[in-house]
Amino acid sequence: MDFENIIGKIKPSKMKTVAVAAAEDDVVLKAVVAAHKMGIATPILCGNTAAIKNIADREALDISAFEIAHAEPFEAARAAVAFVREGKAHMLMKGSLQTSDLLRAVLDKENGLRGSGVLSHVSILHSPILNRQLFLTDAAIVMYPDLKTKVKLIENAVNAASGLGIDCPRVAVLAAVELVNPDMPATLDAACLTSMNRRGQIKDCIVDGPLAMDLALSEEAVHHKGIDSQVAGKADILLFHNIEAANSALKVFTHAGNCLFGGAVIGASAPVILASRSDSDQSKLYSIACAASISGNVS
What we know:
The chain is built from eleven helices and eleven strands. By secondary structure, it is an alpha/beta fold. The radius of gyration is 19 Å and the shape is globular. The two termini are about 30 Å apart.
């Protein structure tokens, strides 16, 4: 499946608006121009007006239809957040600024976008090998989640999957082994999360674990190991025990598995696109498309 078809399958029914913080970035501008042409999102560009226009001229990008809100670098994040908070934009996107600066504006108690839950990053992949989407959490924000936080990570990932049309997603709680081992805390949490799901404490999904990565993704591995599970081999969401494991897996998927990668922070009052400054314009466009679809599923 080519890139245009992937984007077409997740494109929201109605064009959304994305507020871009510190938009003076060539890759970001390419992505938002493409998103506008494809009917995904209209950007509001917050940043240095002259710098934005200079980049657009140099890259032959037509931004004449876009609103530009002039702001110096330290003000751009707050300006973009204000557009979302006031209902003028459906989502927020990071441009040429540090992630910490953007999140500081998002988490501001008086003027931010605080939601009722935990903020977590959901990485959204399209695997050409599996020919399906995968949702990984958390490779970017929550470092060492405890059991209570893992429940919130699952809920956020389920909201993201639901926004992209996956009803009752299958959640694999990952560990190094598929057996509960008292000496391995990840397996204990996995067993507890599975039980909570079966008792209705974690809703709108099917949770199973502990599962090793091969069992989460490969039906052949499930067959060989004789595992009886509704999730094994068919996982939509991969919940990792810590940020090191999640981040390493994400890089393997993207660099060795040739997966298309996007992502968004869930848990605020609107999705926040935190694509890395090194990500391609195609990856950033994928993130915009995913966040635009998710935005209708975020309260």
